[in-house]
Write a structure and sequence with these properties.
Strand content: 5-15%
Number of strands: 12
Radius of gyration: 24 Å
Structural class: alpha+beta
Strand order of the largest sheet: 1-4-3-2
Oligomer: single chain
Length: about 500
């Protein structure tokens, strides 16, 4: 279409409920049907309503997919000399569209209220909406002033320069052939490793070496996750290793992980740092924030304050139980999507295949536990196998927990873990998280070569590029957790003193 949209016209249509995203100079209107069906989840789109998502669309989709985007194009937009001036997406202000039960129409619903971050002028946090459920549908929706973005430390000119440099970097990576998968030299050793661990676990189990068997099984799960991670980023079907062998939902992982990549370390939006009441990496969580992903309040009360005050001491204990948390999130996702008919995600067969896979997993793994001879040995096998996967959870938190929670992009919210090539398999190659976040579809086995180009890009654009050794990274994370824990302890002490004073007055 040749229609030229003014900035005000785009704003008016967003306020009317349209899902509009800018792609270069083109304006895309995403219909509700595709918003529901998007393989990366609806939030991946909603976080870019009113914004130029060119870099993200190109990084997250293959060229075959981006060529199909014109079907959503409704015209072009008026831009400033340095590109499109972004709006604030309604979802980042606590606004969502919900379908009415009577006539099926969609209306604005305010699930949360935006408050400015105390020390970050460019970022809004969300707290639960205190109005009644009935009144949430009667407030009329966001206003034009709501869409105005918060002030940023980077001018539009500087942002445009970074974006242009990023596009040039992407072209260099494409021309270098780094999107070509190394099936033999990359996945060949991994498949050999999988078979070795599977055989070792089975052989040890047959000889009643149950602890050894459990450890090998856990290491197998730990390694398989990296291949599932690759397939998930490519949109490939990978239910067999994830659901049937690991007991997790790949549908949940794709839905969760794409949001994490797009709004990394944002307290209200990134599900990968939302671990209340057990952990908090920022005092922002003391505001009892609303999670746009989990659709719940992350309550900060006396109980959570107590747990958080100990988080730096319990950190490794919590990581040991990390896989159980994955079960909870994965099965919760399957329950929430039980009546979902999103064909782009594989239709109903995809959901049923995941359910069958999970049931199959617990059948064969349950049989292993029953064969351990006693309930004590079964529990030992269960916890040993799950404990063996904890390096995966440690690697994930090392990449983000010590970094900024400001809305500043991957180079500020992500760090690499320095690792020699011969130990890279322990991290699945994902210790190079900065490069992975900039180019999520890049094969893991090419990240080291690509990271050299990314570091050059960071130097040229005067961007930070953080990388820690394994020990230093652990210290940095523990330092952040301890600092937040001390603040939680102080708040808990103040609250306790206030209660005691109130009781004295009553008595």
């Amino acid at each position: 279409m040749d229609r030229l949209w003014s900035r005000r016209e785009v704003a008016d249509r967003i306020l009317a409920g349209d899902t509009l995203v800018v792609y270069g100079s083109r304006l895309l209107r995403i219909p509700q049907a595709w918003l529901n069906a998007h393989p990366g989840g609806s939030l991946a789109i909603l976080h870019f309503v009113g914004r130029d998502a060119s870099d993200e669309i190109d990084a997250y989709h293959s060229q075959d997919t981006t060529r199909k985007i014109n079907m959503f194009c409704v015209g072009t937009v008026e831009t400033l000399p340095y590109g499109w001036e972004p709006f604030q997406p309604p979802v980042m202000l606590g606004w969502t569209r919900k379908q009415a039960s009577d006539d099926g129409s969609f209306t604005w619903h305010r699930e949360a209220t935006a408050i400015p971050a105390s020390n970050i002028p460019s970022e809004n946090l969300l707290v639960p909406n205190q109005t009644s459920a009935a009144n949430r549908h009667q407030s009329g929706g966001p206003s034009l002033s709501d869409l105005a973005p918060p002030p940023s430390n980077l001018s539009l000119e500087v942002q445009a320069q970074h974006s242009a440099a990023y596009k040039r970097l992407h072209e260099r990576i494409i021309k270098a052939g780094l999107y070509k998968t190394r099936y033999l030299s990359g996945y060949g050793p991994e498949i050999a490793r999988y078979l070795f661990l599977a055989f070792s676990s089975a052989y040890a189990y047959s000889n009643n070496w149950l602890i050894t068997s459990a450890a090998c099984l856990g290491f197998l799960w730990h390694q398989l996750v990296f291949t599932v991670h690759d397939l998930g980023h490519m949109g490939a079907s990978c239910h067999i290793p994830c659901d049937f062998i690991g007991g997790l939902s790949v549908g949940w992982w794709v839905d969760n992980h794409n949001v994490h990549h797009l709004v990394t370390n944002h307290p209200s939006h990134d599900p990968d740092i939302e671990h209340m009441p057990f952990m908090a990496i920022s005092t922002a969580f003391f505001n009892s924030l609303w999670s746009t992903y989990y659709k719940r309040t992350m309550t900060f009360d006396r109980f959570s304050a107590f747990l958080i005050s100990l988080q730096h001491k319990l950190f490794y204990v919590l990581l040991a139980f990390g896989r159980f948390n994955l079960y909870v999130n994965a099965y919760g996702f399957l329950l929430r999507t039980a009546f979902d008919h999103r064909k782009a995600k594989g239709g109903r067969w995809s959901w049923w295949l995941e359910v069958v896979g999970v049931v199959f997993f617990w059948c064969w793994f349950g049989a292993l536990l029953r064969g351990c001879g006693s309930w004590k040995m079964a529990l030992t096998y269960l916890f040993t196998s799950h404990l063996a996967t904890s390096p995966l959870h440690l690697q994930i938190v090392l990449s983000h927990f010590s970094m900024s929670t400001d809305d500043l992009g991957p180079t500020e919210t992500t760090t690499d873990v320095i690792c020699p090539p011969y130990l890279a398999f322990l991290h699945g190659g994902l210790h190079l998280q900065v490069t992975h976040h900039l180019f999520p579809r890049l094969p893991r086995h090419n990240l080291r070569e690509a990271s050299l180009l990314v570091k050059q890009f960071a130097r040229e654009q005067e961007l930070s590029y953080a990388e820690f050794g394994f020990v230093r990274g652990n210290r940095a994370v523990l330092g952040v957790l301890k600092a937040v824990a001390e603040q939680a302890r102080i708040l808990g002490t103040v609250a306790e003193n206030q209660i005691q004073e109130a009781m004295k007055k009553i008595l």
